[in-house]
Each structure stands twice: as structure tokens, then as C-alpha cells.
């Protein structure tokens, strides 16, 4: 989970630091688990199965959070295509990938919201301690239907919320494209190619500035809902 979770999985954090954080977390959680009767296997096979199950649980939780952060990546791609910035990409150190210029700004805002809403604390309390105490690892490991259902729900929610959040700007730019097309038919002598691009970019940036507060507020509520979903998944697989 620490390997792929947002913020912690950034390329700017060395692997040694992440490994040390995982070891430190395990050292803190182990006494709590032992005091609450967490079963520690003695055989090699049981230990290997438990280790595999816990790794899969961590990957699922980290994947779910990464899918939420992919909201702004999808929104940025939709914005960039409509605004004419589809080819303007550069390396984003926060996501370790090539992303649009608008996407880097939105990703930075998403990371700040994640930290502001105590995302790291919830990650360790719900994702680490909660998964050990309330989730039956063997049940989760031998339930492929639950794993696939979790993945499908995460991806469906990501695409649906991204489309919902990007709809105002996409709709405004679409109406502008329709208007420019009608003007091109009505006045063919006008050079709409030179006039249309600045208007399209200006309108896109204007709509982005207007909708940024609503986007960040919606992302904050989606993030809170994500923790509730992760908690319900953990409690539902007991």
C-alpha cells in the first residue's frame, strides 16, 4: 500500500525511506494487533498465505486511492483536448508520468486537499490498522468476485465523477465550437482558424478559473466518500 498510495509513492521519496516507513509502521502496529488477539501463523505455508493476502489488501486500498486521484488526470485530458492543449504535456513528478499542463495544476491541488483532510492519517488508521483488525485476509484472498467487484466499482465511479466534474467546461467549449462552425458557414471569408483558437483557449481558462473551487470541493467530498467505501469494504469482508 505504501508503495502505490498517493503522495507516499512519489518518485521524489526514495525506496529506502518508504521501506523504513513500512518497517516503522509494522513496528507500531504489531503490539496493538497482538494485544487484540490477531492470529500470527506459525507454519511457513500459513504465513505465506497470510502475507500474500495482506499484500493484496494493501494493493487494493492503494489502487482505490490512486483511481480517485486519476479523476483530475481524466478531467485534465478532457480539458486539454477541448482547449487545444492535447499535445502540451510534460513530466509530472507527483504522478511519475507525462501529463497535461492543466493536469499538473489540478494534481497539485488534489494532493494539497489530500493532506489538508488528514489523508495520510486516515491511510494508516483505516488502511493499515483497520485492515488487520477487521478484515479477514483469507476470506479476501479467496473471494475473486469481491476483488473484481471492487475494481469495477472504483473504475466506474472514477469515470463517472470525472465526466460530471468536466461537463461544465466541456459543454461551454462544445457550444463555442458549434458557434464557430455556424459562423464559418455564415461568413466563409472570415479566418476563423486564427480567431477561434485564442477565443477557445481564453474561454477554457476562464471556465477553469470559475469552476476550480467547485472542483476542489467536489473532490474533497469524493475523498471523504472514498474512506467510507474502504471502511465498508473492510467491515463487509470480516
Automatic annotation (TrEMBL):
It is found in: Cell membrane. Pfam families: Bac_export_1. GO terms for cellular component: plasma membrane. One of its GO terms (biological process) is protein targeting. InterPro entries: T3SS_IM_R (IPR002010). Keywords: Cell membrane, Cell projection, Cilium, Flagellum, Membrane, Transmembrane, Transmembrane helix. It comes from the Bacteria. It is a multi-pass membrane protein. The keyword Hydrolase does not apply. The chain crosses the membrane at residues 15-33, 45-72, 162-183, 195-216. Belongs to the FliR/MopE/SpaR family. This is Flagellar biosynthetic protein FliR. The lineage of its organism: Bacteria, Pseudomonadati, Spirochaetota, Spirochaetia, Spirochaetales.
Amino acid at each position: 500500500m505504501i508503495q502505490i498510495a498517493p503522495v507516499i509513492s512519489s518518485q521524489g521519496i526514495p525506496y529506502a525511506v518508504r521501506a523504513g516507513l513500512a518497517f516503522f509502521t509494522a513496528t507500531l502496529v504489531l503490539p496493538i494487533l497482538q494485544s487484540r488477539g490477531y492470529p500470527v501463523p506459525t507454519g511457513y505455508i500459513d504465513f505465506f498465505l497470510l502475507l500474500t493476502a495482506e499484500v493484496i489488501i494493501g494493493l487494493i486500498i492503494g489502487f482505490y486511492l490512486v483511481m480517485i486521484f486519476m479523476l483530475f488526470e481524466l478531467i485534465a485530458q478532457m480539458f486539454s483536448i477541448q482547449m487545444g492543449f492535447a499535445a502540451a504535456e510534460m513530466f509530472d513528478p507527483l504522478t511519475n508520468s507525462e501529463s497535461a499542463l492543466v493536469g499538473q495544476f489540478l494534481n497539485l491541488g488534489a494532493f494539497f486537499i489530500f493532506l489538508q483532510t488528514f489523508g495520510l492519517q486516515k491511510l494508516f488508521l483505516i488502511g493499515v490498522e483497520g485492515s488487520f483488525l477487521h478484515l479477514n485476509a483469507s476470506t479476501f484472498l479467496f473471494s475473486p468476485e469481491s476483488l473484481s467487484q471492487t475494481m469495477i466499482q472504483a473504475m466506474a465511479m472514477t469515470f463517472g465523477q470525472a465526466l460530471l466534474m468536466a461537463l461544465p467546461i466541456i459543454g461551454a467549449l462544445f457550444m463555442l465550437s458549434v458557434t464557430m462552425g455556424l459562423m464559418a458557414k455564415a461568413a466563409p471569408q472570415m479566418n476563423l482558424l486564427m480567431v477561434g483558437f485564442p477565443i477557445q483557449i481564453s474561454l477554457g481558462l476562464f471556465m477553469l478559473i470559475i469552476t476550480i473551487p467547485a472542483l476542489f470541493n467536489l473532490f474533497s467530498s469524493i475523498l471523504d466518500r472514498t474512506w467510507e467505501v474502504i471502511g465498508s469494504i473492510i467491515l463487509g469482508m470480516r
